[in-house]
Amino acid sequence: MRSKVVCNCRLGSKCRTGVFISVPLRSTFCVGTSYILAVKVSYIVAVIMVDYKVQGSFAILEVNNPPVNALSHAVRSGLNDGIEKASRDRNVKAVIVCGKGATFPAGADIREFSKPKKEPWLPEIGHKMEKCEKPVIAAIHGTCLGGGLEIALFCHYRIALKTARVGFPEVQLGLLPGAAGTQRLPRVAGLQVAMDMISSGRHVLATEAKKYGIIDELCLKAVKASVDFPYEKGLEMETEFFKQLLGSGQSKAQQYAFFAERTIARWEMPNGNYRTAVAKPVKSTAVIGAGTMGSGIVVCLLSAGIPVYLMEQNEKFLNNGLKMIKSIMEGSVKLGKVSPEVGRKAATLLKPTMNYNDLKDVDLIPVLVKTCRGFLANRMHGPFGTEGTFLVEEGALPSQVDRVMEDFGLPIGPFKVRDLSGVDIAYKIKQEVAKLLGIKTTLQTRFMNGERYCALNDRLFHLGRLGRKTGKGYYKYEKAGGKIATEDSDVTDIIEKHCKELGIQRRQISSQEIVERMMYSCINEGFKILEDGIAVRPEDIDVCYLYGFSFPRYLGGPMFYANQIGLQRVYERICYYHENFPYSPHWVPSRLLRKLAAKSVPMNEWMAYATGSKL
Ligand SMILES: CCCCCCCCCCCCC[C@H](O)CC(=O)SCCNC(=O)CCNC(=O)[C@H](O)C(C)(C)COP(=O)(O)OP(=O)(O)OC[C@H]1O[C@@H](n2cnc3c(N)ncnc32)[C@H](O)[C@@H]1OP(=O)(O)O
């Protein structure tokens, strides 16, 4: 006589599933519940992530791997077993593949990319589905992405909810679809649609996707193979390209960026955290100051459909700000960043004023903090800007520095940025510091408060070269307010005159030195920021750079970039520059970096050394 089995699923003794898995010393679970059998003893006994059910003459393979049903090894094994079982079962006439909960599988399990690879592979499972003599139907809802879409493309039929989204976002991870997507999508949707979907990834603007040169090229080659070669050969080529990309630093950085964005959302503060925080409705706002930053904030608020007062004391500045906002909003509509409707509505939501009384009932006034050292982004970017100017003083030209940094991956070089934000802004910030220190600078000043000082920017300011707005700054422009930067021999003359007056011997400066001095100086500051507890993890800094400075995603962020270079190397170069430039405090090596470099600490353990005890 069989003893009665009590199942540990939600139904307990009422469970009538009849197929059980025993977990030694612990429990018994039925197959087909929504439970994932992961036993928290020293080993995992069984993991079921595809529920197999037969309803009438349909076998249902329901992927059950919350939250996004990623195609982990356990899911792949479940799908593989499921399709074999359904093929054998005489009562089954058709097979449905679907996802439980929020979505159809949203792709391969990205976390597994950095682990030892385990069969069965997706293409193998897909081919089993395709060869199955019974119709296999993908029932799609939610986000059917990457490997999920590839599975769907292997099925004989695809049905989807109207609200479902499909796509190949691999490009955002520095990859291409690796389970026949590049071969099957063109056959289903045509070459043009396939190329567009694969190279844009749908989640990125096409303009950004263009930056992923190598991926574009491999995507193109793989998709082209779908027309030039038989399916098997095309598949072989796709696998080869996928492996190449998976091993690339670019893909690793993009995978890191994906998880970093999610990690930083789990913030903790002394008074609460991301779970306990409650959003307050914001119905009206005000921004004080119609300069570049204020106008930028207004644009963000208007794009989110929030009414905003723009407050300025000076009418001319107010009108300039309004013009700038109008032009940015129009540009955003043109680029498809905001819808034409939002663009039209923006005009009604924006209320210019010169009267503080208008602001008395608004819910929110963003505060622009004016501190010289800054908190995170500005503090790290300080050395970056300073080193740029020093490089020019020593022998580089602004256009050379910009070109090198743009080649490195920045969307716009530091001197073009300075022309954009205004040479006068940089000048006034320096003057405020000098005033605080009780120092009066001249064009001959080389040290301020014991630190190296470069007065080149001051020279441009005094010559009225304030940047784009005056039609000339570090570059010349087609007109005041123009956007086309052209090298200007007058700037070279100004730099040479400056060096001659101060007795500075100019020298050839290599691209490597430019990248190192620009990047390592701000990375060093980044480690000091971690040391000071201003950022709680390197991901905070990296995401700040990805969004705040459009740092190239394929480098992950400055801290990830440092990790990829190797902390030992970065530390050595910082020490070298510290020796050569002892009057620049940003080259004093971070203690945290020294410790991490000496012990080769992996990035996910850095913060254990930042808390003081190990420092
Ligand atoms: C060397 C030998 C090699 C041999 C190779 C030969 C065989 C080749 C086989 C290759 C197979 C390739 C298959 C395929 O082509 C490649 C891929 O599929 S890559 C993955 C593509 N998919 C994606 O990039 C989707 C990423 N996810 C999202 O965009 C979003 O998460 C979402 C699905 C739109 C949902 O968004 P939200 O609702 O906002 O939820 P979150 O984003 O917050 O996510 C919730 C939670 O889930 C985690 N997560 C999401 N997606 C994945 C994933 N694909 N893998 C792992 N984890 C994922 C996310 O991190 C969140 O968790 P948290 O980080 O908060 O803990």
Automatic annotation (TrEMBL):
<comment type="similarity">
    <text>In the N-terminal section; belongs to the enoyl-CoA hydratase/isomerase family.</text>
</comment>
<keyword id="KW-0456">Lyase</keyword>
<feature type="domain" description="3-hydroxyacyl-CoA dehydrogenase C-terminal">
    <location>
        <begin position="514"/>
        <end position="599"/>
    </location>
</feature>
<comment type="similarity">
    <text>In the C-terminal section; belongs to the 3-hydroxyacyl-CoA dehydrogenase family.</text>
</comment>
<keyword id="KW-0413">Isomerase</keyword>
<dbReference type="Pfam" id="PF00725">
    <property type="entry name" value="3HCDH"/>
</dbReference>
<comment type="subunit">
    <text>Monomer.</text>
</comment>
<dbReference type="InterPro" id="IPR001753">
    <property type="entry name" value="Enoyl-CoA_hydra/iso"/>
</dbReference>
<protein>
    <recommendedName>
        <fullName>Peroxisomal bifunctional enzyme</fullName>
        <ecNumber>1.1.1.35</ecNumber>
        <ecNumber>4.2.1.17</ecNumber>
        <ecNumber>5.3.3.8</ecNumber>
    </recommendedName>
</protein>
<dbReference type="Pfam" id="PF00378">
    <property type="entry name" value="ECH_1"/>
</dbReference>
<keyword id="KW-0276">Fatty acid metabolism</keyword>
<keyword id="KW-0443">Lipid metabolism</keyword>
<comment type="pathway">
    <text>Lipid metabolism; fatty acid beta-oxidation.</text>
</comment>
<feature type="domain" description="3-hydroxyacyl-CoA dehydrogenase C-terminal">
    <location>
        <begin position="374"/>
        <end position="477"/>
    </location>
</feature>
<dbReference type="InterPro" id="IPR029045">
    <property type="entry name" value="ClpP/crotonase-like_dom_sf"/>
</dbReference>
<keyword id="KW-0520">NAD</keyword>
<keyword id="KW-0560">Oxidoreductase</keyword>
<dbReference type="InterPro" id="IPR008927">
    <property type="entry name" value="6-PGluconate_DH-like_C_sf"/>
</dbReference>
<keyword id="KW-0511">Multifunctional enzyme</keyword>
<dbReference type="Pfam" id="PF02737">
    <property type="entry name" value="3HCDH_N"/>
</dbReference>
<dbReference type="InterPro" id="IPR018376">
    <property type="entry name" value="Enoyl-CoA_hyd/isom_CS"/>
</dbReference>
<dbReference type="InterPro" id="IPR036291">
    <property type="entry name" value="NAD(P)-bd_dom_sf"/>
</dbReference>
<dbReference type="InterPro" id="IPR006108">
    <property type="entry name" value="3HC_DH_C"/>
</dbReference>
<dbReference type="InterPro" id="IPR006176">
    <property type="entry name" value="3-OHacyl-CoA_DH_NAD-bd"/>
</dbReference>
<keyword id="KW-0576">Peroxisome</keyword>
<feature type="domain" description="3-hydroxyacyl-CoA dehydrogenase NAD binding">
    <location>
        <begin position="285"/>
        <end position="365"/>
    </location>
</feature>
